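TICKET: design request
STATUS: open
ATTACHED STRUCTURE:
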């Protein structure tokens, strides 16, 4: 017997599995990685209702300044991000903002700065199953522009450019890093490729804004630096204000 379905489990199947309906979610989703950052975000949203809990992922929907917003801990890596991205893209959400972290690939980008992805170099293991090597993974320009304007208005040091996504955190070697820098990468993360690629394929607008946790070029580690944690907190404020401005501009 051959496999009976073209795809064993699809994004639509996942949405049905968690019993998510279009009216249950907002047009905007803010997507942190870890659960503790989701908890901090939920405190800013009025009357959050839990949509579902599935494995370690939990989705809530509530109001922010009268705007219906959905939030989910979207994953730390390309594999789990692909799962949550499929759920969001198949549930009726139209705009996705990822708030995450990255390593800087430029000595002039400091721990605590923010990076907004405009383009992604795909080095993950998920997206080759979705697109061929010539596909260009791009952030939605309006979301990226709005994130940039909001961050600047809040007095945050923000950089825009190409982000390289990798699955191999402990194999960011000199040869590989310098090759990605020559391709234009200014930062490295483990999520943006899967999220933005899947969003593009589903005609969902998506952007990614990242707090710099370390500098791969200088070797600086900022994981215990208060400046880094302040930047993580600022990401939530920026994302919420970005949603407000996007809604006002509709």
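STATUS: resolved
RESOLUTION: sequence designed for all positions
ATTACHED SEQUENCE:
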């Amino acid at each position: 017997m051959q496999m009976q379905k073209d795809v064993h489990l699809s994004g639509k199947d996942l949405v049905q599995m968690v019993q998510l309906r279009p009216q249950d979610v907002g047009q905007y989703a803010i997507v942190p990685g870890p659960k503790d950052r989701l908890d901090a975000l939920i405190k800013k949203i009025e009357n959050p209702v839990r949509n579902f809990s599935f494995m370690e992922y939990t989705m809530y929907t509530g109001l922010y300044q009268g705007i219906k917003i959905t939030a989910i801990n979207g994953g730390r890596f390309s594999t789990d991000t692909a799962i949550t991205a499929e759920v969001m893209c198949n549930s009726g959400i139209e705009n996705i903002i990822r708030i995450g972290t990255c390593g800087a690939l430029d000595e002039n980008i400091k721990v605590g700065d923010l990076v907004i992805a405009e383009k992604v170099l795909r080095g993950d293991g998920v997206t080759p199953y979705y697109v061929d090597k010539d596909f260009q993974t791009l952030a939605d320009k309006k979301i990226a522009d709005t994130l940039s304007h909001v961050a600047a208005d809040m007095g945050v040091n923000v950089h825009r450019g190409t982000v390289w996504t990798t699955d191999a955190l402990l194999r960011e070697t000199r040869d590989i890093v310098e090759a990605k820098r020559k391709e234009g990468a200014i930062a490295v993360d483990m999520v943006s490729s899967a999220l933005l690629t899947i969003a593009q394929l589903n005609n969902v607008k998506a952007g990614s804004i990242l707090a710099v946790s370390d500098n791969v070029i200088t070797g600086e580690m900022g994981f215990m630096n208060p400046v880094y944690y302040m930047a993580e907190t600022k990401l939530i404020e920026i994302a919420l204000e970005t949603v407000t401005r996007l809604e006002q501009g509709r």
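CLOSING REMARK: The chain has seven helices and ten strands. The beta strands are 28-32, 46-54, 57-64, 67-72, 95-104, 114-123, 137-138, 158-166, 185-189, 205-215.
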